[in-house]
Amino acid sequence: MMAFVQRMEMVFVASADGRGECDASLRAGPPGFIRVLDARTLAYPEYRGNGVHASLGNIAENCHVGLLMVDFVQDLIGLHVNGAARIVEGADFTVAFPQVPADLGQGPRVERWVVVDVEEAYVHCRKHIPRMARVHEKREWGTDDPGRKGGDYFGAKQTPRWRPRPHAARRRFPSTTHLGGGSSRTLRPR
Predict the structure, then answer these.
(1) Which has fewest Cβ within 10 Å: 32, 38, 52, 99?
(2) Please, which pLDDT band fits residue 139 given cuts at 50, 70 and 90?
(3) Which overall architecture, per CATH, does domain 2-133+141-148 show?
């Protein structure tokens, strides 16, 4: 698992705010941008982004995160990592983890790190993972050009702002995949 993590070039990050409202986001970088600090701790860098701060805002309210790394090119397999995350400013991270180079060699300076204390890690079935081909292209990391960042790609700026209705109580179901010891069960009432 450690070797797999260290060769990944992207990770999908799932987080939720204090009310349980979910968000999923993509983080990417050169192989090794996700750092294995030890057998129970991972870290990934945060750069200046789109200004939404959805993942960081969620982590500030609710430390639980789910990470999904998928190898679409070579092995067609994935790895789930769930744990408790904390946001560590760049300078503080450098002091706490001097073994991690401050510059990852892709341009912009890391502003902060998300450090994840791993609670569980398990395989993502390869059955429906599509094979993709690597395309080598030079990426300009750290741009603030709205057009190159995606801008208003979906034309959402002209859409009236949607206001969700107040939350009704949600029924939570027990998990069938997040069980320790390799066991599984069917869904059942609490």
Answers:
(1) 99
(2) low
(3) Roll (2.30)
